[in-house]
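I need you to check the entry underneath: sequence plus fold tokens. Let me know what the token row says about the fold.

>
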Amino acid sequence: MKRILTLTLLCFLLHSSTFGQLGIFEKSTDVGPVLHQGATNFDLKTGRYELSGAGANIWYTKDEFHFTHKKLTGDFILQCRGKLLGKGVDPHRKFGWMVRTDLDTTAAMVSATVHGDGTAAIQYRKKAGTRIEQVKSPVVSPDVIQLERRGSSYFLSLARFGEPFWTVEVPELNFPQELLAGLFICSHNKDVVERAEFDNVRIYIPAKPDFTPYRDYIGSHIEIMDLASGDRNIIHSAPNSLQAPNWLPDDKGLIYNSEGLIYKLDFASGKTAVLNTDFVTRNNNDHVISFDGKMLGLSSSSGEQEYGSLIYTVPLTGGKPKRITPTGPSYLHSWSPDGKWLTYTARRNDNWDIYRVPSDGGDEVRLTTAPGLEDSPEYSPDGQWIYFNSTRTGSMDLWRMRPDGSFQEPFTDDEYQDWFPHFSPDGKWIVFISFLPDVKLDDHPFYRHVYLRMMPAAGGKPRIIGYLYGGQGTINTPSWSPDGKKIAFVSNSTM
């Protein structure tokens, strides 16, 4: 499987104008009068960058360092994991993200900087030729580094992988719209060359602040994450909205929805094709594959418009769907492991609750009755539990219950708004998406900073496994690989 994913990524990179010899960047250069030439190496197979460089310092009114960069206009989010390589010579050697007005050694700039001794800060020169200022971070030796521009404000976000971001804003940096943005390294010793490695390097161009949800869409990346290492690979990109990948049981590809249709992405060829769902052509991002791999459940507003979304089933190979739910709106989230039941969230009598219905059709059974929103029910692989998310305590937390609706109990309780719990194939772990506290408890919007988190299915402390720009459509559906080693999800960026 690793070989197939590597070949797919390679095929994508070779045919994408986004990637070249320097990956997503355009140029690699030394800034200032460095004594030893630096270099940038990009590994096409892994997506990793290695920078080497010298330079006396990046401070006062003169900078010396190595810089790999591209031109960006307007708002952006720069994100990576990074680390210095080797023991190093000077504890103040530094690396990270940098944004500059030009390549002059005294240029106005802002950088997300991590030093060899673990000190981290946002450092900035407001105008060319002036001295650098900084705000230090309490996070020591972070490896997840993010620098974001919003208008004239710059936000530094730092974390040690697995932990939440610490964030600080520096306002009123009145730089031009077009800037040079990229990765840098400085040895802090003019006679020494140091090295740094970067992975999960992403440049997100966010949605415009005034975009209208469900009308205005930006581009999408389908990504694969190795859960042991946290390494992420983009395997497919498009300028429109792609949502909710399901990993196929035969381990040969994914399905996802886009603009009302269901698509299949083949790992070996990298090609996509529409899956035939006949008259059901307004599919949303709540689609689920049965445990035996034979059937696909769909949520769609096709056909009976007065009900909104209804649930249908169709062979995974395609065909004419069968309507299952008697009324709507109904949004499918899970099959029972024995294939007998479909579990979904639905609005009845102005309240959103969780229901189940026989997978061949029949009378629906209400499983939850609490006021508020109950959503995203998913069966555990052993069929003993249904996990879901609920607003009943005043925040969106994960809960679980028995398949008949009994023994309802909370499962997460922190400041985040948690959605869409998905079980690993062995039933030992769940992955879910967490929105930040500023998101309404009953909303899961597009185009926000979100975390992917993982925790033991038996209970425990969640840890962050993914930092990304996404939200609605990122991981609405079960997307673990059959061997339980990877997950698929969607991140977003204007192309």
